[in-house]
Structures are given as C-alpha cells and as structure tokens.
Structure to design on (229 residues):
C-alpha cells in the first residue's frame, strides 16, 4: 500500500521568499510521485512528477522537487514566491508505471504575504 | 483543444436520491478516472474505466457505479445518497499510450451537495 503525508496544512510565506512544502511517502514498491496544484474552483493541475529517472525534478512555474529515498521525502520548493502561487498543493503517489490510481495527501494551502 | 469537461458544475440533491455526473475526456485520451474530494481533504480514488470496463476500484461502496461509452466519455452514478456523499467529484483522463502514462488531466469538477 502507498500513502503520503503532507506536513503543514497551511503555509504562509512572503512574496519573494523561498517556498517549501513538505511531503513524505510510504510505499512497498518503488513509487511514482507527483505534485498537483488546485486553484479555487478549478481542477488539479500537474506541477511535476518523479518516475525513477533524475531525482531532482523540475516542473512548471519555477517549482522543483527532489526525491530522497533515504528520507522517504519529495518536498516541493520554489526559490521566490509570487502572489499567483497562492493555491492548494497536493502530493500524490502511485505504485508505478501504468497505474493511475493516485493516493493523495490532505493538501497544503499556500498563502503569499505581500 | 478542450480539456476534460464535466457536467453539471453544481447540483443539490436530498438524501436517498440518485445522481449522475458526466465527463468528457481530453481529446486523444482513452482512460477515465473518478475521484471524490471532500471539503478540506485530498481527492480519493473511486474507480477507473478503460475500454468500457472498470479497470480499478477504490474503497467505495457499490452505491457508486460508473460507465464508459464508446466515445470514451464516462458517467458516475451514486444511488441512495447520504449526507457524507457531499463533495467535489473530479474526473480525470489519461492515455494508455507512450510517455503520457500516469499523467492525469483533471476537470474542474462537479460539486454535489446532499441535504
């Protein structure tokens, strides 16, 4: 079975500051990991995915995440926050290629302080 | 290029009623998955359809059923509605072919309120 834990249901950062959203996973097999973003009244949009290639994954809108097997982590970062980054962020895991049954975390709401 | 479209966007039902939600996948996609997102929670997998068959199912009761049509569109049916079924229902489509595997495109959802 797979699961993800997102630490911090709410995170606030100042505009221009580093964004760090935490995700730890549990998986009995090598996982595929994802970060999705959800803006108000919209569906989920894929930010980036890890599929066992490079451990540092770059995504859209300047976000990136690093897969650390020793720490079972897949934290999302962005060097400089923009007001438009305010949204809900979800980490998700699947057991591997071809399996699209995503298990999501409970989400982290990111607020940007002007 | 239209993405995933869902209808209706909002609906209100009463306990015990039945509801049908509809989804048209992104052009070129042949697989449809449904997720339930309760308020303040992450989405939970309901089931997935491919080639008009249910391929995977999450931990949801039989009150939740679905269908996929030859044009790849899909319906989610929920019978005997409970208050706890109130949620945003998300449809996601994907392609079984090539590098797009595992990448889901989500619709904006259908928000169901059960009174």
């Amino acid at each position: 079975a797979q699961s993800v834990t997102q630490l911090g249901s709410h995170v606030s950062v100042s505009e221009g500051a580093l964004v760090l959203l935490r995700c730890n996973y549990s998986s009995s097999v090598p996982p595929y990991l994802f970060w999705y973003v959800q803006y108000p009244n919209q569906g989920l949009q894929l930010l980036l995915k890890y599929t066992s290639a490079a451990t540092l994954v770059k995504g859209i809108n300047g976000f990136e995440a690093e897969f650390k097997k020793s720490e079972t982590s897949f934290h999302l970062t962005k060097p400089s926050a923009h007001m438009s980054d305010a949204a809900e962020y979800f980490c998700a895991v699947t057991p591997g290629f071809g399996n699209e049954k995503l298990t999501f975390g409970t989400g982290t709401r990111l607020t940007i302080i002007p | 290029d239209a993405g995933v479209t869902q209808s209706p966007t909002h609906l209100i039902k009463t306990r015990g009623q039945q509801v049908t939600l509809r989804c048209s996948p992104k052009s070129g996609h042949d697989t449809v998955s449904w997720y339930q997102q309760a308020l303040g929670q992450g989405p939970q997998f309901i089931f997935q359809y491919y080639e008009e068959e249910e391929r995977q199912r999450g931990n949801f009761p039989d009150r939740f059923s679905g269908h996929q049509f030859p044009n790849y569109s899909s319906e989610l049916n929920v019978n005997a509605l409970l208050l706890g079924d109130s949620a945003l229902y998300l449809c996601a489509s994907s392609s079984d072919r090539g590098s797009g595997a595992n990448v889901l495109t989500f619709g904006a959802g259908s928000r169901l309120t059960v009174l």
